[in-house]
Amino acid sequence: MAHLFEPLKIREVSFRNRIAVSPMCQYSSTDGYANDWHLVHLTTRAVGGAGLVFTEAAAVEPRGRISPEDLGIWSDEHIETLAKIVELVDNFGAVAGIQLAHAGRKASTAKPSQGGKAVDESQGGWRPVVSSSAIAFNQDSPVPEALSLQGIQEVINAFVQAAKRSLQAGFKVVEIHAAHGYLLHQFLSPLSNQRTDDYGGSFDNRTRLVREVVQAVREVWPEAYPLWVRISATDWVDQGWDIEQSIAFSKILKSLGVDLIDCSSGGIIPGVKIPVKPGYQIQFSDRIRREANILTGAVGLITSPEQADQIIRTGAADIVLLGRELLRNPYWPHSAAKELGLDQPWPVQYERAWV
Ligand SMILES: Cc1cc2nc3c(=O)[nH]c(=O)nc-3n(C[C@H](O)[C@H](O)[C@H](O)COP(=O)(O)O)c2cc1C
Question: What whole-number distance in Å separates Cα of residue 133 and Cα of residue 186?
């Protein structure tokens, strides 16, 4: 039976354990560039013992940033500083992954420390923001422009160019962000997608854009490297996207060459009551893994070594992604191994921490 510290191999990429740093926006970039903050932040988590270190959501085009300070990969100039991070993460034994994202109608907001509300051009934001349909996220958000068919092709191309740049930077895992109410999720969910063309209405039509992005990215992303998709397994709203659709869609994504579904939830509309409690999203990674027969990642309020180990041992997921716990303690994987009595030595430089 697999456990938390059992290595995992997906395609030709090997992870030393089943712990991943979940993508987390740092709101620290200027013009999308990774800088010393990202370098230290991400490398520290590799030294801390994670098997996989994801960057935060990297915007595939400038108008797809959540905030003006988001990381980006919309130009070749972004590659150099990312490549340095990949090299260091790799040197310290972790695999470097990148999450490719477009915020859609949730773009152009202030960073959380500045209130998180929509900002316009005068405050460093931008217009228009785009989506599946011309429906604002909330009353403070701008009304997005519904993407034209040509606009949709441009978005697909932006993901493809971003994947090519990710490869040039040396990343070995790409995760397409189709969760949390951002652009791709805005196409999946009937709550935000009210199109009447080939990209709206039926399940087949609502999933078309994500399928096309996945197919196009898979063509440029090496066979040897894993491709992941993060979804919101449910909108937690009647008539919204739900776990049944997620299972059906995961089967399709698998047939298109996706290796793992990273199972998050929520984010498509404001004001939704989500039953948040420890491990509240594990039910989704568990069901998708069993019913769609694909590798899954579990995320969301996973904080204790025993809980994380149980998720792997019971087959509820193949990997756990930790967010805030790894912000609090980048060395969590080492401490967890020690607590579980499993083999993952601390870095030799830190051995005296325990004597
Ligand atoms: C500061 C912060 C930034 C985040 N940024 C992203 C992001 O860029 N992409 C993403 O998919 N999720 C993002 N998330 C969500 C996390 O990846 C994770 O799914 C969530 O925090 C739940 O896991 P946790 O309880 O272990 O923190 C962010 C969360 C936090 C706290």
Answer: 8
